[in-house]
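Incident log, structure service

09:12 report received: a user says their structure output differs between two submissions of the same chain.
09:20 pulled the input from the user's history:
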Amino acid sequence: MKRHDSRPAGRLRRRGVGAMAAAVALAVAGCDGQSSDGDAAPPGAAGGSAAGQQPDGETAPDFAFVAYQGEAVLGGKELAFSGILQQGKPVALNFWAGLCPPCRLEMPEMQEVYDEYQDRILLLGVDIGPFAGLGSRDDGQALLRELKITYPAGTTFDAGVPQAYKLLGLPVTVFITPDGAIVKRWTGLLTKAKLIELVQELLAASG
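09:34 re-ran on a clean worker, output below:
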């Protein structure tokens, strides 16, 4: 698995110009889920388009994750993403923010899919609002409470994560096999039906 930076948040190095550029790009994208291939946006998307990309041999970068909730499922509060993968389940890694309107729209349907598939996959929400200019970590936790979201979710203090995962807008969901291979990256709002379709593809790819 490609190593990114799994050190606890307090010991992470300051990132350089590249990480700052990635954060600015996310803020400019403005949470509208734009994608370069021009597919039509699903209902409820906040402008722009939503589409999936089929990565070619990409491995999920490692990073330090701090849980807001779901510690019992994850096995702790401060974890390396590589350690989460070692549990042996495929992961739907959802990047979101507390003040991102499409994120708010898709989260209740993500909860429904989690309720149906939690024995077979891990749905993990990562709040990167502070890096995208789309809310604080307090905003992120407040949104989870408001929507009564129970699937594992948290944040990272690693400012290099948006660039490492090639995030050009929010929300973004990355589908990852237990051995760390990225099967698909979906930029934009996901409906329940589309998420189930992509989860099925992930399960098939995971063997």
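09:41 both user submissions now match this output. Likely a transient worker issue. Closing.
09:42 reviewer note: The chain has eight helices and eight strands. The two ends are 18 Å apart (CA to CA).
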